[in-house]
Design goal:
Two copies of one chain form a homodimer. By secondary structure, chain A is of the alpha+beta class. Chain A has helices at about 5-10, 10-15, 20-30, 40-50, 55-70, 85-100, 125-130, 160-170, 175-190, 200-215, 235-245, 255-260; strands spanning about 40, 70-75, 80-85, 110-115, 135, 140-145, 155. In chain A, strands 5-6-4-7 form a four-stranded antiparallel sheet, with helices on both faces. The first copy, chain A, has a three-stranded antiparallel sheet with strand order 1-3-2. The longest helix of chain A has 19 residues, at about 200-215. The radius of gyration of chain A is 20 Å and the shape is globular.
Chain lengths: ~260, ~260
């Protein structure tokens, strides 16, 4: 079982908005069992879910739903259930990972502004999927590495005026980033470099971080460093998420089996 | 007096839309007497106006109006009136000359796209005066040599898609450019390189060309070569205006005095 001390230190992160159990599970599998053939055994999953304050019945319902929706497959090996991402679940997870685990953007990286043709074939949603942030109608900004729509006017420049940074910040998720920033700051102080966590605690901590981060970053494209605001809550969250995930690397799931299975 | 043949060859240009006499006079002074201290003597002005099919009474009224509006000053030297641009008239004329006498834009010259701040301090009219063509709300294009408004996002790029060229062509003056193009093409064939014109004929020809060109080009900024359409009537007009004005350089006004004063 994780220590009461650990539960206290991660309380703020647990209380950030509604945490749907099935969604928490997707975060967990995506973080710890994304590899081909990666499995989370039933007792390990139960231990992690319990440590995340999820009741056994709620965990069973969520698992059932994820199997029905084709995200998770479960097989029995002897008396132990082996849960793993389905091929579809793994594809989705791999698809989202570059955005979730991206390094914080660097101010020196390339950026582009594109103006798309006026024939209406490029809508803002498609552009967001490609990684572009809307600036004005028909005008989008993004990292220089992504391929702009055919026949668009591709531009770049030098100085970025501050009004542009202000205008293109993702504003609707701003309050959520402010709340996450506060929780991550507390966590960063409570779990400084060198803090020893058990494998179970590490799995729970990473799941909480990845889950709360994922809920926000997947709602908008990542701005290239030069166009982002380094003082913004989203950028500050990004830095802390990166640091905390590096400070507490993925645990060996077999260690959870040994220490927590019988709890 | 100009030859009947000359009058016939320039007829199309004379008939392009309403030619207000005072406006023709501004074109004439701007083309032939823009320099400090440049004077057009009364008899020379009368000879040119007569060759432009302007009745003596209409010329007198126009001159009176231009004096009242502070464009022209007239002084008597002996029995001869000396007409010249006022200091204001000369300033206006000098201000418009770079646009009127600009070389046709070259596809290799630099261009910029600027996005202005959204605080509404930059309107399209101010931007046009500075030399920028509107592309989209808050987005303008222009030659790279002009200074963009403070705090704008200044961009440039490589390939220019054809929809951009189509969208930013000056469309409201398009019919007038088509008509001018036809007249200039006729003129270009009727007055090939090597054609000998008298000083009076040259003055009249230049006045007609400059006047009809000026009426259109001063209505919109000049697009940089890479953003313009070389097949467009405005670009084709520009090439012919440049060639014809080079083919028939400014005449010596004293020669008009000698040959036409007594006509």
């Amino acid at each position: 079982m994780p220590s009461e001390n650990f539960a206290e230190k991660t309380a703020a992160l647990r209380n950030l908005g509604p945490q749907r159990v099935w969604s928490l599970m997707i975060s967990l599998f995506g973080d710890l069992a994304q590899g081909s053939g990666d499995v989370i055994e039933g007792p390990v999953l139960s231990a992690i879910m319990a440590a995340l304050d999820v009741k056994p019945e709620a965990a069973r319902v969520a698992l059932h739903r994820l199997r029905n929706d084709g995200w998770i497959t479960s097989t029995k090996v002897g008396r132990i259930s082996h849960h793993m991402l389905s091929s579809k679940g793994r594809d989705e997870s791999i698809g989202a990972s570059p955005r979730i685990y991206a390094d914080p953007p660097d101010a020196g990286e390339g950026w582009q502004v594109v103006i798309v043709p006026g024939n209406g074939t490029e809508d803002a949603e498609q552009m967001a999927v490609a990684g572009f942030t809307p600036v004005l109608p028909r005008v989008f900004a993004g990292p220089s590495g992504i391929i702009p729509p055919a026949d668009s006017l591709v531009l770049t420049g030098g100085n970025v005026p501050s009004w542009l940074r202000d205008e293109i910040q993702p504003s609707d998720v701003q309050p959520d980033y402010i709340a996450l920033q506060a929780s991550l700051s507390d966590l960063d102080r409570a779990l400084p470099k060198g803090t020893a966590l058990s494998a179970l605690e590490t799995a729970v901590l990473r799941c909480l971080i990845v889950h709360n981060w994922r809920r926000l970053v997947l709602k908008h494209p990542l701005l290239p460093g030069a166009l982002g605001d380094t003082r913004s809550p989203s950028h500050q969250c990004h830095i802390m998420v990166s640091e905390l995930l590096a400070r507490f690397p993925r645990p060996d799931l077999r260690k959870i089996t040994l220490t927590d299975r019988t709890a």
